[in-house]
Amino acid sequence: MNQTPRTRAVLGCALLVTALGAGVTGCGADGDPLSAKPFDAAGQISFSGPTEAGKPADPDKPLEITAKSGEGRITDVTAQDATGRRVAGELSADGSRWHSTSPLAADAHYTVAVSTEDEDGAPGRKVIVFDTTKPATTKRLAVTFGPEAGEYGVGQPVTAMLGEPVKDKAQRAVVERALRVDSTPVVQGSWYWVSDKELHYRPKDYWPAHATVQVHSNLDGVKVGDRLWGGKSKDLRITTGDRVEAVTDASAHQLTFYRNGQQVEQIPVTTGKAGFETRNGVKVVLEKQSFVRMRGTTVGIAEGSSDSYDLPVYYATRVTWSGEYVHAAPWSVGSQGYANVSHGCVGMSTANAEWFFDHVRPGDVVRVVNSNGDTMEPFGNGFGDWNLDWAKWRTGSALNGTGTNTADTPAQDTPRLRPTAV
């Protein structure tokens, strides 16, 4: 039985970039149009570009691929560079046009695979390769991820410190879109612009216990602004341990220690007295110091006054940069479990402090409730990120919200002050 050959989709590949023509793969021989193997659209692809063939393309221009009207449709387009970075794009509902929605990288080698379908449903395929020009400026935006590689508690945010300030929302969106955070198990998360040079990433809830979190920047070679291009960044991989939460009830003078949702220990404590109340809210363990000399002068207490102190302190677990710790306080054992007599820290016996010290790690959650103190600030004094609810957190993303700091406290680069309170 004779069959009429199927009409192949004719593609017009309008790369709105310079000199793409020389990068096109060569034409191939026609095959059986009824074969399941996709036909090669070579010879039916045209390019437009202001430069000669063989010249690199301009990464500032978008990539656009169109199918000739009435001759079929585009079913899929995959564009990626030699490092595996994909170019995001949108395909029209009728399959007549695909265009890129994310910028191309400079000084990169791209492969574009176009899948088509003719009016009878026969599949076609075309592969295009091209290079892009080098950046016009040598100024690069480097990203440094934190914390250092290792194992952390489930409350540990991921940080991204930028080598240059980024203020414009559209430019922030370019940066944020290039920063990838992948976790196993998968969780919902978002970046928050703490300042022009600092972003934090956290899930909607705490990280799962025993998760793996990998952080990567696809910003290298991507144009951020008129005179700013993305630079190379080092990947980060961290893991989480058990879900550890220490909840201090300031009115009950008790710290309850939970591991993976199960109560493990309850410890009598003392918290901040009137005028030095311990902050309410969620904090995250920043570091552990087996010995710290604590002086009242570092938190504004005049030397020689009734509140003055200068003490050796052991088993000190820091939760704020301004000097709030969970630590051994043998001088207040008589008040622990009964009264709040500290200058803002959570104090406990030496034996209990040693136990606590041995059972927590950076990133573990330390929460205070029922204190007369203020709520822990979200940024600038440690990791108070969890004190913003999820809806408000998402407003700090340039992709999901305004891309600006909306916390109640001013954004600032995280200080490394070392004042201490007991």
Give a concise summary:
The protein is mainly β and about 425 residues long. About 5% of the residues lie in helices and about 35% in strands. The chain has 3 domains: about 10-130, Immunoglobulin-like; about 140-240, Sandwich (Immunoglobulin-like); about 245-395, Beta Barrel (L,D-transpeptidase catalytic domain-like).
Task: Explain how this protein is built.
The chain is mostly beta strands and 422 residues long. The chain folds into three domains: 11-131, Immunoglobulin-like (Sandwich), CATH 2.60.40; 140-240, Immunoglobulin-like (Sandwich); 244-394, Beta Barrel (L,D-transpeptidase catalytic domain-like), CATH 2.40.440. 6% of the residues lie in helices and 34% in strands. It has helices spanning 169-178, 350-359, 390-394, and strands spanning 11-12, 39-40, 64-67, 73-81, 89-91, 97-100, 109-117, 123-131, 140-141, 143-146, 150-152, 158-162, 179-184, 189-195, 198-203, 212-217, 223-225, 228-230, 236-240, 244-249, 254-259, 262-268, 281-284, 287-295, 310-318, 325-328, 346-348, 365-369. The longest helix has 10 residues, at 169-178. It is elongated. The termini are far apart.
Strand order of the largest sheet: 22-21-20-28-23
Name the average pLDDT. Answer: 84
Number of domains: 3
CATH homologous superfamily designation of the largest domain: L,D-transpeptidase catalytic domain-like
- Write the CATH fold name of the largest domain: L,D-transpeptidase catalytic domain-like
Helix count from the secondary structure assignment? 3
Ends: how far apart? 94 Å
Helix percent band? under 10%
Question: Architecture of the largest domain, CATH level 2?
Answer: Beta Barrel
What gross morphology would you assign? elongated
Cα radius of gyration in angstroms: 29 Å
Which residues sit in consecutive blocks of at least 5 with pLDDT less than 50? 1-7, 13-35, 41-52, 409-417
Q: Proportion of β residues?
A: 25-35%
What structural category characterises the helix and strand content? mainly beta
Largest sheet geometry: 5 strands, mixed
Number of strands: 28
The top-level CATH class of the largest domain is Mainly Beta
